[in-house]
Design goal:
The chain is of the alpha+beta class. The protein has helices at 9-12, 24-36, 114-128; strands at 43-45, 55-58, 61-81, 84-101, 107-113. The chain has three helices and five strands; from the N terminus they run ααβββββα.
Length: 132
């Protein structure tokens, strides 16, 4: 189901609760909403659709409870967000190693680089309640 985009900065600044196996429907709503906004959005976190759970989606992929476990090669970036007005400057890392759970809640670890790494960092910031 396509959900409305949350723009409430107080809600968005709350740290997300861990995702559980019962949150699969939220993940599907996140993917549906991301697809509906594909012309102006490359990733989403659950709080962007009004759900305070640690779930992110990008590139037709969902991560439950993602955590960056390693990062290298910092750089300055400027990013926009559907939930926030305008763009903001932030520090990102060219290479990150992420641990998360898939849809079966099996733990996965993978290294991401470049644009995909930047998207993941932005969405994990949402999970941490960080408004860039």
């Amino acid at each position: 189901m396509i959900r409305d985009i949350c723009k409430d900065e107080f809600f968005l600044s709350q740290k997300a609760e861990p995702a559980m196996a019962g949150d699969l429907e939220i993940a599907q709503d996140l993917l549906d909403t991301l697809t509906a906004h594909k012309d102006g959005c490359v990733g989403m976190a659950a709080n962007m659709i009004g759900v305070n759970k640690r779930i992110i989606a990008f590139d037709n992929m969902v991560m439950f409870n993602p955590v960056i476990v390693k990062k290298s090669t910092p750089y300055d970036a400027e990013e926009g967000c559907l939930s926030l007005t305008g763009t903001r400057k932030t520090k990102r890392y060219q290479t990150i190693k992420v641990q998360w759970q898939n849809e079966q809640f099996q733990t996965r670890i993978k290294t991401f680089t470049g644009w995909t790494a930047q998207i993941i960092q932005h969405e994990i910031d949402h999970c941490e309640g960080i408004l860039i």
